[in-house]
């Protein structure tokens, strides 16, 4: 099922995305949402909607800035949070590489993760 929400302008989506990120990463009460696949998917869809809208309107440079801003490697404090949270998963030790990457994606969303960040997070102890 696909649902649609209509926003009056891009700034509303940007505001919702920023609020979602601040809540997820900076609010102690957000613990239950950090590992939520549904919350992570929603955050990722918000980011993609912003990027897609700027591309659709011919603002490729703005779209690229949003992509760059939401690379986990550009946010060391977020990267540390993601690594610490991901490794606390009760089955972390028994997960294979693909399962670990999927879990890291969930925890990090809407941030995008480089291969280097995956390797770093998975090898940290």
- Work out the count of structural domains: 1
Distance between the ends: 40 Å
Rg of Cα set? 15 Å
Mean pLDDT: 94
* Main beta sheet strand tally, sense and closure: none
Q: Which structural class matches the secondary elements? A: mainly alpha
Total count of helical runs of at least 4 residues: 7
Helix content: 55-70%
Question: Order of helices and strands, N to C?
Answer: HHHHHHH
- How many β strands by DSSP? 0
Fraction in beta strands: under 5%
Uncertain segments are none
Shape: globular
Describe, in plain words, how this protein is organized in 3D.
The chain is mainly alpha-helical and 125 residues long. It has one domain. Helices cover 67% and strands 0% of the residues. It has helices at residues 10-26, 31-34, 37-56, 60-69, 76-87, 97-108, 115-123. Helix 3 runs antiparallel to helix 4 and helix 5 (76-87) packs across helix 6. The longest helix has 20 residues, at 37-56. It starts with 9 loop residues before the first helix and ends with a helix.
Keywords:
mainly alpha
In short:
Helices cover 67% and strands 0% of the residues.
Give the SSE layout.
Blueprint: H1 10-26, H2 31-34, H3 37-56, H4 60-69, H5 76-87, H6 97-108, H7 115-123
Helix pairs in contact: 1-3, 3-4, 5-6, 5-7
